[in-house]
Description:
By secondary structure, this protein is an alpha+beta fold. It is 28% helix and 31% strand. It has one domain (2-78). It is built from three helices and five strands; from the N terminus they run βββαβαβα. It starts with a strand and ends with a helix.
Amino acid sequence: MLLFIREDEHGFIYEPHGTESECWSTTPEGSAVLKEAGWRPYEMQRVSRYVHECLLIDGLLKPLNLTPRSFVVKPDLCLR
């Protein structure tokens, strides 16, 4: 699952990824942990610091580098 994460004074807000350049990815196990903790996209987006840190420590949440250059499709690959 691709997410945009921001921090505020109460914890973290996990939103489904949109057009932001910063992106985080969860493993299937990480997605299950989020759902078990009560996270729901567009409904309940707040995640506690404890859950956020557990996801990071266990390697279930990793940053992705999504730059416009990474989406370039080479024309010669499309013709094959």
